[in-house]
Amino acid sequence: MNELQEFIQTTLEQIKNGTGEDKIRGTVEFEVAVTKITDKGGKVGVSVVGIEANSKSENVSKIRFRVQMRGAIAPSEK
Fold first, then answer.
1. Who has the most CB within 10 Å: 2, 11, 13, 48?
2. Sign of dihedral through CA atoms 45, 46, 47, 49?
């Protein structure tokens, strides 16, 4: 699971846990700052800004999206 997927899944799980409901309905809106990271081997990935402590001068982009909640949230596989 990449960092953005993990961030979204964890956030949705925390909303579910905070409400105490097994099923959640409604819309969750995210605005996330992300950065593209290329490792020494040339592999490209996306990192949620603020999660990774090793901050370099990288281009940061903001993305905004909504997740429509229609039921149960499956626990993440960590």
1. 48
2. positive
